[in-house]
Amino acid sequence: MKNSIVRSVEALHEEMTIELVCMALERGYPAIEVIRWMQQGMERVGLKYENGEYFIGDLIFAGILLDEVLNLPEWLQAYAQSMGSASEKKYEGKILAFTVYGCCHNLGKNIFVSYAKAAGFNVKDLGQDVPLEVVLDELDRFRPDIIGMSGMLSETAEEMNRVIHTLEERGMRNRYRIILGGEAVSNQGAQCIQADAATQDVVEGVEICKKWMQEKESQRKSNGM
User: Fold this and answer.
1) Low-confidence ranges of the chain (pLDDT < 70)
2) Helix, strand or coil for residue 111?
3) Among 82, 104, 126, which residue terminates a domain?
4) Which residue, of 81, 164, 189, 198, has the fewest CB within 10 Å?
5) Are 142 and 35 members of one domain?
């Protein structure tokens, strides 16, 4: 099933992808594993775009296809059951997501945003190549629990560091958990620039964010708030 779904997404076959996803869920494959397969297919779409085989419209369609899967009743039910309840998703928290200034690669970030929304998060997506000043303005407006930064190029790790350093200078760093995505940094690199976590796996990234919100809720309850 995995290879079939990956290839179907790569080929941008809408009906076949949805049919294969429903078949995988019927056979008992975990909902989050299906999304990992979707991610692998979309990464191949991104490579084809970079190689000139696909165009921007194809990237957009791949994102639409992912959203369709994430909104399938079959997937929503399987995901809810895997979380221990078939009830409606509960609100998890707020995430401000963006690709840092100097980087125009946003496919991975888009996958993360779609999956985080499906998991119940309120996500504000600032897009790609986002200047620091815009990030700071949106932090004041949106007041997120979590900041999700993405970058593919090694140079963008410096921009991630600049964002975090600015938050520290302004006494704002402790207000947020910060997760990094893309190939710009590893977990070790994330620690060096004082981020809380880094991953290239969207499922793992969302699970990390959920864990943080659970910790925040537990702390709130222990403080009697």
Assistant:
1) 84-91, 224-225
2) helix
3) 82
4) 81
5) no
Q: What six digits make up the tokens of 65? A: 């296809």
Is there a domain that residue 89 lies in? Answer: no
Exposure class string for 129-166: b at 16+ Cβ within 10 A, else e: bbeeeebeebbeeeebbbbbbbbbbeebbebbbebbee
Q: How far apart are CA 217 and CA 222, in angstroms?
A: 9
Strand partners, 146: 95, 177
CA distances to 9, 44, 158, 204 from 34, rounded to whole Å, are: 12, 16, 34, 13
Q: Are strands 122-125 and 177-181 parallel, antiparallel or unpaired?
A: unpaired
Full-model pTM: 0.81
**What stretches of 48-152 adopt beta strand conformation (E)?**
94-99, 122-125, 146-150
Phi, psi of 176 (to 5 degrees): -130, 150
Question: What does the pLDDT read at residue 224?
Answer: 65
pLDDT in tens, 145-163: 999 999 887 778 899 999 9
